[in-house]
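Issue: copy button drops trailing tokens. Both records pasted manually instead:
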Amino acid sequence: MIHSARKPLLTLLMLTTPLAACAQQPESAPQPAIAAPVAAQSSAPQLVTGLPDFTALVEQVGPGVVNIEARSSGRQSTRGQMQEDEIPEFFRRMLPPGIQMPEPGQGRRGVSMGSGFIISDDGYVLTNHHVIDGADEVKVRLPDRREFTAKVVGSDQQYDVALLKIDGKSLPTVRLGSSATVKPGQWVVAIGSPLGLDHSVTAGIISATGRSASAEQRYVPFIQTDVAINQGNSGGPLLNTRGEVVGINSQIFSMSGGYMGISFAIPVDLAMSAVDQLKKSGRVSRGQLGVIVEPLDSAKAKGLKVPDARGALVNQVLDDSPAAKAGIEIGDVITSFNGSAVNQSSELPPLVGALTPGSRAKVTVLREGKPREFTVTLTELDEGTGTAAAPSQSAPGAPSAAPATNALGIVAQEVDANARRQLGLKSGEGVMISRVTGTAAREAGLAPGMVILQVGRTAVGSPAELNRQLASARPGDTVMLLVRRGGATTFIPVVVEKAD
């Protein structure tokens, strides 16, 4: 929902001399000596000089930026879309002619207003998936007021990219740049239709690159900017100072629904790789490695005997996946994929997803602190792959728990058949925690109902096996436990307590 902004109170900082100091002083009063200002001396070079003028850029690029109106018969609004009855009254008065405002509570067709840009003079238009998602009719309006009915060639929800086609010749186009060269601090410009206001121009800088903005779009290394972006900017171009498109404006981070200085753009290199696939087949396919990873921290790094917290920690390897066939194991830390460094877990999915099924890639991991290299042949990503949710408590008739005879104070029991089905566990895989008596284990987050799958790199399938694996733990050691909780698998480091 878009909230109308209240007019803020303006605080004026007066830079004039205070009135008391302006009072005329007696002639006899001595005038204080004023020391001559001393210029600051610095040997540092001037790093920023002047401010850019974007007028030439806007005049050149503007004709290729379009307004998109998507109409659907349904009443629901999808992510990022702006419905007619969600527009504040101030902006209602400024909407383009022809848009009729429904009365409150009146049934109406859903209208999504967004932006896009023409990438070829024969009429291919790029925008966001969420702008046209579920639309029965899509209209594209050019700055010269020409209007076309567009055909949706294809779209992809994960990348949030949609390719449209309009019937036209010698249409104005934008120039495509490369998102691989963008760096934090560079100037960028956005052109679009925020809140239905055609061809609004805003500017700012690149705040960060390679951002993971949402779990739903883990395959997109977003470009973060502080360019003013609002609803309706979706699908519009993010431009460098050469007037080249480096991204597609897609999302904003907001507490109010409006601009807060954090916006996200899809890298144009990624978008154009999707365009090639959409033209050929109408869909996008991504490579799959077949691992689930989690972030590293200093405690986990110590428990895994790796030098630092860089990399992606593997906590699950799918059966018959490329990773499993290559020999990658749970507990490996992936530090490089296909020649690109992996410094944090969120960097791995975009690198894998950018490759097509059948591609071969080299994966470098740390295992017990030593590097190993594997060659994998990627399969096609199954978007529906998931993990069953864990039960909140043991089912009636569960096996009795074994006493806690281990250094962590964990009382475990065998996993009953019902819980095993829900969690997707194989026979003899894992033990369920029934009670935690150790302080360090509780503080680490271990709780009844969780299932311990491994101690370090060794799988456990019975309470007795758990106790045997923990028998060698000494006070001060960091023990890595692979735990299934809440439908997710993660490593939990626990430091063995010292005796009082």
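Record 2 (pasted manually too):
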Amino acid sequence: MSTSSVLYDVPGPRARLRNNVLTLVSAVVILGIGYIVVRGLADKGQFAGKLWEPFLRGDVWANQIIPGLLATVQAAALSAVLALIFGMVFGLGRLSDHAWIRVPSGWVVEFFRAIPLLLLIFFVQFFPATASGYTVNVPAFAAVVIGLTLYNGSVLAEVFRAGILAVPRGQSEAGYAIGLRKGGVMRLILLPQATTAMMPAIVSQMVVLLKDTALGWVIAYEELLNFGLKQIPANFGNLIPSAIVISLVYIAINLVLGYVAIRLERRSRRSRRTPAGPVAAPAAAGVGGATPGSGME
């Protein structure tokens, strides 16, 4: 059997040596940068015990970090559920055979994908009062959740559409051949197979959504970043240590989310075999409406 793959050639001795040298050089450069950063922080006194002491106190965690973490998780969880519903509805809408459903769905998805999330949050909070002329107070929590839902739901709509289109055309044709209608083909054949292909992209977008809850800081939503970069440093004067600790908390949350997602994906792949390949999350907003996919024909 040939030692080459259909995707790449197996590296030879020279290529392996070159790769090892590049890996070593990259590691040395990264360690050097890390040393410079740590040395700079040490010279500025950022590792002084008094700056890190607040994070050893139970009252700081109980009254500030934990409440901020809970607020972050609450906003992220509700936004994730709503964004998944939004994405499924408009993703299927973009695959409709009917132009009066497909075209408006495409406009909605492209519109909200094209607007920066921060502007969406500002718009949701301040537009009602400005447009009506009355005092309308939109809670910061609601503004954050609606903004996250509209933006991430639009991205997920493209993920759902791409996942369904990734299922080979023969799968839907087989469904029609045994007498299933469009709804049955979608529910029983296309969506179950597409879910496995969509899982990595969906999880990736959920991680982005979780991190984007930090944008609530600018409208005074008291989430984790608000406590970590505003309230705790205001009380203890430890901005850099606080930023490091809050970053570690975010990293821990995302690692847990990634681990759970990997387990779900492996379990899904064991219980369901699909010919559809993995789907990547769309990188940027596109232009124009979508055409109906083969899965809905």
